[in-house]
Amino acid sequence: MPNTEPNDMTADDKKKMPFLKGNTPLAIGAAILVLSSGLLGYSVGHRQGLTVVGFEADAEQLVEVVQKQKASLETLNKTLNTATQERDLAVSNANDLYLAMNKARDEHTQAENLATLYREVLRQRGGMPLSIQHLAVKPLPENAFEYQLDLIQVSPSKGRASGSVELRLIRGTEILVVPLADKNFNFENYERLTGRWTMPKGFVPEFMEVRLTGTSKPVTRRFSWSKGEAIENQSAFLSEIPQTEANAN
């Protein structure tokens, strides 16, 4: 039976059909390539944007760290400059102290030489008997006092002076003997005795008498009592100072 269906396909359509069928994979590949290129471009652009944002954050943090380090370096420089100035000042003070000590040592040596010369002259002229050269009394807080007694002699034979010291506080007929921690002396040319005592409350002496015994000729000398201002902040404890005792003699 003959085919009666109409045949509307032209010759050109018949030619296109085999072309599309043969190039379908190529078209699909091209579409995939275009889509992949688009996705790749978006991904790269997104990453580039994130990289720029991260770089700006890192740069700000780096600037902050640099500023902190700069401030720390400035502080260290100031500390170093201060330490250098203090060191230079200490060195200068040490040099001044060294020069002052040398000067004092030279002056002391010169004074010792002069004293030796004077003693030799005195020996040639008969010497000097045991004498009380100086007595100083210094008031301290809490009714305490400190004494300083200088003894001197020049013996023609260069003999030593030895004996004991007694300090007396006198008010009218009352006599108080000052307790001495070390009342003995033994020297050739000069000796200084020092000590402290506590004055009984309400007792104000008129005189202070010094007696030297144990020598061939006892020595007695009386000094008028005078009181100065008390000296604060003494290093010694006043409780360690012995108390005076009354003496009937």
Topology record:
Elements: H1 11-124, E1 128-140, E2 144-154, E3 161-171, E4 174-178, E5 184-187, E6 190-198, E7 207-213, E8 219-224, E9 245-246
Antiparallel strand pairs: 1-2, 2-6, 3-4, 3-5, 3-7, 4-9, 7-8
Could you describe the 3D structure shown?
The strands form two sheets. Strands 3, 4, 5, 7, 8 and 9 form a six-stranded antiparallel β-sheet that branches. This protein has one helix and nine strands; from the N terminus they run H-E-E-E-E-E-E-E-E-E. Strand 7 (about 205-215) and strand 8 form a beta hairpin. About 10% of the residues are buried. The chain has two domains: about 10-125; about 125-245, Immunoglobulin-like. The protein is an alpha+beta fold and about 250 residues long. The chain has one helix at about 10-125; strands at about 130-140, 145-155, 160-170, 175-180, 185, 190-200, 205-215, 220-225, 245. The longest helix has about 110 residues, at about 10-125. Helices cover about 45% and strands about 25% of the residues.
Question: Summed up, what is this model?
Answer:
Helices cover 46% and strands 27% of the residues. The protein has one helix at 11-124, and strands spanning 128-140, 144-154, 161-171, 174-178, 184-187, 190-198, 207-213, 219-224, 245-246.
Query: Mind telling me the CATH superfamily name of the largest domain?
Result: C2 domain
Question: What best-fitting shape do the alpha-carbon axes yield?
Answer: elongated
Termini separation: 181 Å
Measured by DSSP, the beta-strand proportion falls in 25-35%
Number of domains: 2
Radius of gyration in whole Å, from Cα?
55 Å
Largest sheet: 6 strands, antiparallel
- Binned, the helix content reads 40-55%
Second-tier CATH architecture of the largest domain: Sandwich
Number of helices: 1
CATH hierarchy, class of the largest domain: Mainly Beta
Structural class: alpha+beta
Along the chain, the helix and strand elements come as HEEEEEEEEE
How many individual β-strands? 9
